[in-house]
Specification:
- By secondary structure, the protein is of the alpha/beta class.
- It folds into two domains: 38-117 and 232-285, Periplasmic binding protein-like II (D-Maltodextrin-Binding Protein, domain 2), CATH 3.40.190.10; 121-225, Periplasmic binding protein-like II (D-Maltodextrin-Binding Protein, domain 2, 3-Layer(aba) Sandwich), CATH 3.40.190.
- The protein has eleven helices and 13 strands.
- Strands 2-1-3-12-4-13 form a six-stranded mixed β-sheet, sandwiched between helices. Strands 9-6-10-5-11 form a five-stranded mixed β-sheet.
- The termini are far apart.
- Pfam families: Lipoprotein_9.
- The chain crosses the membrane at residues 9-28.
- Belongs to the NlpA lipoprotein family.
């Protein structure tokens, strides 16, 4: 009888061991698959360095996110690559730029969350205040619709001109209502802003390009954007293909970006020129 009971116990112990080994293999396999999952983030300009820092941060590891950063020079190519799934998430564009891409492309992107406002600035080598710009001055503007409109709104905010009521996020100089100083406008490629400073009276430059040209918008511009309702379309977002907007891992990237230690590093690295905007997506659409 004792031998029978002893055999039964050995059988139960053996069964428990098999179950434990099976569960261990299951957990190990799941953990291995999780570790192998990598989110590829496409970016350009100074943001490449930001996301390389985030990818290597303890905060990313704690969030269970493995991030690979891929650098681009062409924003349209990056958006197309994101929409097609070649890139999982991109980090470079404003809400207005994303909307314009969706309007002009059959491929659609969705915002995951807000990151920051990089103020656009008015820069001049000849004049120190916007009110010093003379009548007939030549002002250089970016030649893509979203940034052309953004620049014109900044000039209006500075009191240099007024815009028509019909002015929209992709409007151009034909939507100027009054131009009392008879400014002339020269459209340029976004990336050439710092290089044309010596050849025009003033240039409107986004902060990503300004940083590459060793310009600090808070110190070197003669006027720049502030965070308020009038600039919410210029707030930068993380974006992904519309079909992937529900992915929890992608949405974790938004929270990761706003982690306090990461924000301190960004503020120190870029002298406060990447102004944090931690708002729900509804903020952009109200």
């Amino acid at each position: 009888m004792a031998k029978h009971k002893q055999g039964k116990w050995w059988f139960l112990l053996g069964l428990a061991a098999i179950v434990a080994v099976g569960l261990g293999l299951h957990w190990a396999t799941n953990g291995q698959n999780h570790d192998e999952e990598t989110i590829t983030i496409g970016s350009l300009g100074a943001d490449v360095k930001v996301w390389q820092h985030i990818a290597a941060s303890p905060a990313a590891k704690e969030a269970g996110l493995k991030i690979k950063v891929k650098s681009f020079t062409d924003p349209v190519q990056l958006n197309r690559g994101t929409a097609s799934g070649e890139i999982d998430v991109n980090a470079f564009q404003s809400w207005a730029y994303l909307q314009n891409f969706n309007h002009e492309s059959k491929q659609k992107l969705a915002a995951l969350g807000t990151t920051y406002l990089e103020p656009m600035g008015i820069y001049s080598k000849k004049y120190h205040r916007v009110k010093d710009l003379p009548d007939g001055a030549t002002i250089a503007l970016a030649n893509n619709p979203a940034n052309t409109a953004r620049g014109l709104k900044l000039l209006a905010s500075a009191g240099l001109l007024t815009l028509k009521k019909s002015f929209g996020p992709t409007s151009g100089t034909n939507e100027i209502a009054t131009n009392p100083h008879h400014f002339k406008f020269e459209e340029i490629d976004d990336t050439t802003g710092p290089r044309v400073l010596n050849s025009v009276d003033a240039v409107l430059i986004g902060n990503t390009i300004a940083l590459e040209g060793h310009l600090n918008v808070l110190k070197d511009s003669i006027y720049h954007e502030k965070v308020d309702q009038s600039t919410k379309a210029n707030v930068n977002v993380l974006a992904t293909a519309k079909a992937n907007a529900h992915k929890a891992a992608y949405r974790k990237l938004v929270k990761l970006y706003h982690e306090p230690k990461i924000q301190k590093w960004i503020a120190d690295q870029y002298q406060g020129t990447k102004v944090e905007v931690d708002k729900p997506l509804s903020y952009l659409t109200k």
